[in-house]
Amino acid sequence: MSADNNSFDQQGRIYWGTEHFPYGLAKSGQFTRQQVELLERHGYAYEALASGERTPITPEEKSFLQFCQGEQEPDSAHEKAWDRYLREVSKTGIVVTSSASQADASSGYNDALDLDEL
Asked: Which domain holds residue 101?
C-alpha cells in the first residue's frame, strides 16, 4: 500500500458496498480480507476516480486512473481490489430456490425444473 497518507483519501467514510452486497463486503464471501479492508477504506475514492468526479493527486492515484481507463492491467493492491469488485458487481446470476407450498402438494403439481432450459 502507499506510503502517502493522502492517496485514496475519503475523509474517514466507510464504503460498505451494500448497493450490491446487502450484508456488506466482508460478509459477501467474494473478497479476501485485504480486499475488504481496501474497499471499505478507499471505495468512495476509487468510485470518484473511476467516474471522473475526482482528479488524481498522487502517482498511485494516476496509475489507478490509467487502470480504470483500460490503459493498463491492474497492478497495485488498490487496482486489483477494485478490479475484483467491478467483476463481482457485473456478474449476472440466476438464483434458484425451491419450496413446496400446501397448494402444490394438494394439487399434485410436481413439475421438475430443467436447469438446462435457463
From this structure: 33-117
CA dihedral 99, 30, 42, 54 (to 10 degrees): -80
Q: How many domains is the chain partitioned into structurally? A: 1
Helical pair 77-90 and 59-68, crossing angle rounded to 10 deg: 30
* Domain membership flag for residue 103: yes
- The pLDDT value recorded for residue 1 is 44
21 inside domain: no
pLDDT of amino acid 79: 97
Q: Is residue 95 part of a domain?
A: yes
Cβ neighbourhood burial of 79 (10 Å; 0-12, 13-18, 19+): buried
pLDDT in tens, 40-71: 999 999 999 999 999 999 999 999 999 999 99
In a domain, 6, yes or no: no
pLDDT at position 12, please? 85
